[in-house]
């Protein structure tokens, strides 16, 4: 039936959910540490916790506390407090520049087994991470997972080694999901669908070791991973990895997707650390787990990209810019910026091609006779009115700006006719050496914008013919019309020739002679399938809309759970926990602060957990009574929030 | 016909990897200390159907002052929470139009000042108070949230 067919089709469509616009809740707790730590009796254990290195976090208090019935009691903190009983046994050190702090506990006893929290700020506010400590007799202690704390959209490099025994077995990296360990990448070239184009696996020098590079780390990439040799759960060895993604809102990261208008150009920015400025930087397009270089800073340009790509280095802000113009549909894909040394400097961007109006227009192929006057014109649209415009001559190492006044070639001039919004590069008397690619571009605030490429071909004219009788063959070669599809010319001139040859060059096949009939035959069933897919997608989107936005008032369930009002625990679990104005933490004093809720009120408020409105009203009035009891009867120092049971996310309010 | 597909859909569609199981943050208002998250849960009346559940978490700072920048103002006794105000998105986001990236604000009426009930950890709050030194009374600036007020 059509219904089944629709659902079948829907199952293969990529899930473009409305929820991708929002942060997942897991992203709201940025403090990260190990989930499980193992220690030996009388031994010691080290716990390392991470936090985003913002100014607040770096200066705020860091603590290590043990969870108990009434909250989380501080054992040691960076404001100088050590709980009695732990003197000399426990230490905490903060490394603010690295965004981490370390807790060292020695002389472990069995009583110390339990759940702890490492956190930032004030206990119980939610800016903390739960760590479970296991104390055993030993002698062998299992290894915890390796921790990785990565910035959003940055690149993560993971290396695993298993010894020479596993040199030739399958190596893999998989992510633990509810349904098992989902493959991310393995040596048999199988990729997880979300990782296409942004993951690379490479074998290291030592046998049995390999490294995996994941770029554009997103919120969904947080979680437990397993890297191993063999097959997960069946054979071989494996190692656990715990990865957490955080956002440092101050520093902008590279955009994951860049949109390029067909026929126009796209600008890619690659960042690198300042360590080795002299390393060779390269840029490549990802294809089937290989990334063939397109351009690099040593002057290499791939032959099929001549005149199409240029790289500019900005050592001041540690970036380099790559511009790709004459965009076609086949240019879409994933491009990687790499340096030959540090693997961490790799980053990738996805380029998508959209239809639109290029901002720069002009004649892309200009032919001129030697010695004649040539004007290369570039018309820019209104949006570039305030930009800097330039012309430059393209060569393998970059695009050399055409000087405006002092020139090597006499009579070359760059003018801008503002009335007609054109930029003109003129040659008074063009020479053979002027042949080549020229780019017209716009720049603003030092950032490169759109560019347009023009090929200037200089033909030997009749004037020269008289003098070169003996060389008539060679001059005849020069005078050949450019549309002859010689293989030597195709790599150079993408925008060179007529549509027929262009489509051949675009498809990069050596057989350009697919007749138009065959094309139509192939296109029509493809078109029909596309129509069906589009219809199915529209239905899917409608269903999506229906599910996510259509919420009737009746479906709002109000569950006011009074136990939350009872004691002041569990503040916002958001990134920047709200700070109560009346918090006075005693510097250097006893930090064991708890509120003792009067037992009668506890019983009363616990009973008040209901799900209908009138009962909620009853419960609320009961709460008002008990809350006045609490504010009067509670101790003077205000709740530095003893931490209660884990946050109760279901049915709140 | 449509109802049929509605029931059959969650059963057949195993492909959405994480979109239906996760909870997403809709509102994270640090000024009024409200978080709203939403996720799909099976409906209680009809377990085959999924409905959207929104969790609203409000932390009421009972010991806050009317003006959080002035510790001498009276205690605040009225807390007003409006969903429309909380759901307003005033932070500029980047959107892509015709190949160019622009920054745009998603809501109107973003210029009205918000009354905050509690401190935003990323902002520095100060107050002035009269300080008597050598018989002279000077108005001295003091910091209410030390950790947020460092220059670096």
Automatic annotation (TrEMBL), chain A:
Q: Does the keyword Cell membrane apply?
A: yes
Which InterPro entries does the protein's record reference? Answer: CD300_family_receptors, Ig-like_dom, Ig-like_dom_sf, Ig-like_fold, Ig_sub, Ig_V-set
The record's section on CDD domains has: IgV_pIgR_like
**Membrane-crossing residues?**
519-540
The Basic and acidic residues compositionally biased stretches are 603-614
A Pfam family it matches: V-set
UniProt keyword Glycoprotein present: yes
**SUPFAM superfamilies for this protein:** Immunoglobulin
GO CC annotations on file: extracellular region; plasma membrane
Q: Where is the Ig-like domain?
A: 252-354, 358-459
User: PROSITE patterns per the record?
Assistant: IG_LIKE
Stated role: Mediates selective transcytosis of polymeric IgA and IgM across mucosal epithelial cells. Binds polymeric IgA and IgM at the basolateral surface of epithelial cells. The complex is then transported across the cell to be secreted at the apical surface. During this process, a cleavage occurs that separates the extracellular (known as the secretory component) from the transmembrane segment.
What's the protein here called?
A: Polymeric immunoglobulin receptor
Name the source organism. Dromas ardeola
TrEMBL record, chain B:
Sorted alphabetically, the Gene Ontology cellular component annotations on this record are: pentameric IgM immunoglobulin complex
Molecular function per GO = immunoglobulin receptor binding
Q: Name one GO biological process term.
A: humoral immune response
Specify the superkingdom. Answer: Eukaryota
Q: Which InterPro entries match?
A: Ig_J (IPR024110)
- State a single Pfam family of this protein: Ig_J_chain
**How is this protein named in the record?**
IGJ protein
Record the organism.
Answer: Dromas ardeola
Query: Gene for this protein?
Result: Jchain
């Amino acid at each position: 039936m059509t219904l089944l067919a629709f659902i079948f089709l829907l199952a293969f469509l990529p899930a473009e959910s409305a929820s991708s616009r929002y942060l997942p809740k897991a992203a709201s707790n940025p403090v990260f540490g190990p989930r499980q730590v193992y220690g030996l009796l009388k031994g010691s254990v080290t716990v390392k916790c991470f936090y985003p290195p913002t100014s607040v976090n770096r200066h705020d208090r860091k603590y290590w506390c043990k969870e108990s019935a009434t909250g989380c009691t501080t054992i040691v903190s960076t404001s100088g407090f050590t709980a009695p009983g732990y003197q000399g046994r426990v230490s905490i050190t903060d490394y603010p520049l690295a965004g981490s702090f370390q807790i060292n506990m020695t002389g472990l006893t069995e009583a110390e087994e339990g759940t702890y929290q490492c956190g930032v700020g004030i206990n119980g506010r939610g800016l903390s991470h739960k760590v479970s400590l296991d104390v055993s007799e030993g002698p062998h202690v299992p290894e915890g997972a390796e921790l990785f704390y990565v910035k959003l959209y940055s690149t993560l490099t993971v290396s695993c080694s298993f010894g020479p025994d596993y040199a030739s077995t399958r190596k893999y990296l998989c992510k633990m999901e509810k349904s098992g360990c989902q493959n991310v990448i393995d040596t048999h070239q199988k990729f997880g669908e979300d990782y296409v184009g942004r993951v690379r696996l490479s074998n290291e020098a030592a046998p049995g070791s390999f490294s995996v590079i994941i770029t554009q780390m997103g919120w969904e990439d947080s979680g437990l991973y397993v890297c191993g040799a063999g097959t997960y759960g069946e054979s071989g060895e494996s190692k656990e990895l715990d990865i957490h993604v955080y956002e440092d809102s101050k520093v902008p990261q590279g955009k994951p997707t860049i949109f390029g208008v067909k026929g126009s150009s796209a600008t890619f920015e690659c960042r690198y650390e300042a360590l080795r400025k002299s390393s060779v930087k390269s840029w490549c397009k990802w294809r089937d787990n290989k990334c063939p270089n397109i351009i690099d800073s040593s002057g290499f340009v791939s032959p099929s990209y001549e005149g199409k790509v240029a790289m500019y280095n900005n050592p001041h802000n540690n970036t380099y810019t790559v511009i790709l113009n004459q965009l076609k549909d086949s240019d879409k894909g994933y491009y990687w910026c790499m340096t030959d040394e540090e693997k961490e400097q790799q980053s990738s961007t996805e380029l998508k091609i959209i239809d639109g109006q290029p901002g720069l227009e002009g004649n892309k192929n200009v032919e001129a006779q030697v010695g004649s006057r040539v004007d290369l014109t570039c018309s820019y649209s209104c949006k570039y009115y305030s930009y800097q415009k330039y012309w430059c001559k393209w060569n393998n190492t970059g695009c050399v700006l055409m000087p405006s006044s002092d020139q090597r070639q006499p009579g070359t001039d760059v003018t801008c006719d503002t009335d007609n919004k054109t930029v003109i590069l003129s040659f008074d008397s063009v020479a053979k050496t002027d042949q080549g690619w020229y780019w017209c571009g716009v720049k603003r605030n030092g950032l490169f914008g759109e560019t347009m490429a023009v090929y200037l071909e200089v033909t030997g004219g009749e004037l020269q013919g008289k003098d070169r009788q003996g060389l008539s063959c060679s001059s005849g070669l020069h005078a050949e019309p450019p549309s002859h599809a010689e293989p030597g010319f195709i790599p150079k001139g993408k925008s060179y020739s007529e549509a027929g040859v262009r489509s051949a060059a675009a498809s990069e096949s050596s057989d350009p002679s697919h007749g138009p009939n065959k094309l139509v035959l192939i296109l029509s069933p493809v078109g029909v399938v596309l129509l069906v897919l589009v219809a199915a997608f529209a239905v899917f989107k409608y269903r999506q809309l229906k599910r996510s936005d259509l919420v009737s008032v009746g479906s709002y369930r109000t569950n006011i759970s009074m136990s939350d009002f009872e004691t002041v625990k569990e503040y916002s679990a958001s990134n920047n926990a709200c700070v109560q104005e009346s918090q006075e933490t005693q510097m250097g004093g006893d930090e064991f602060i708890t509120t003792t809720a009067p037992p009668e009120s506890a019983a009363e408020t616990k009973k008040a957990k209901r799900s209908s409105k009138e009962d909620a009203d009853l419960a609320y009035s009961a709460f008002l009574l008990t809350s006045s009891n609490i504010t009067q009867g509670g101790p003077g120092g205000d709740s530095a929030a003893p931490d209660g049971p884990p946050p109760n996310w279901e049915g709140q309010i | 016909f449509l109802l049929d597909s509605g029931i059959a859909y969650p059963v057949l569609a195993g492909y959405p990897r994480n979109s239906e199981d996760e909870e997403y943050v809709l509102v994270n208002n640090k000024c009024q200390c409200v978080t709203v998250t939403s996720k799909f849960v099976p409906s209680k009346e009809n377990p085959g159907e999924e409905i959207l559940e929104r969790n609203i978490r409000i932390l009421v700072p009972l010991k806050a002052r009317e003006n959080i920048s002035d510790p001498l103002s009276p205690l605040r006794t009225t807390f007003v929470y409006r969903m429309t105000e909380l759901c307003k998105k005033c932070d500029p986001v980047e959107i892509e139009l015709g190949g160019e990236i622009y920054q745009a604000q998603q809501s109107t009426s973003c210029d009205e000042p918000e009354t905050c009930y509690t401190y935003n950890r990323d902002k520095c709050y100060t107050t002035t108070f009269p300080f008597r030194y050598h018989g002279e009374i000077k108005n001295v600036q003091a910091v209410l949230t030390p950790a947020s007020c460092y220059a670096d």
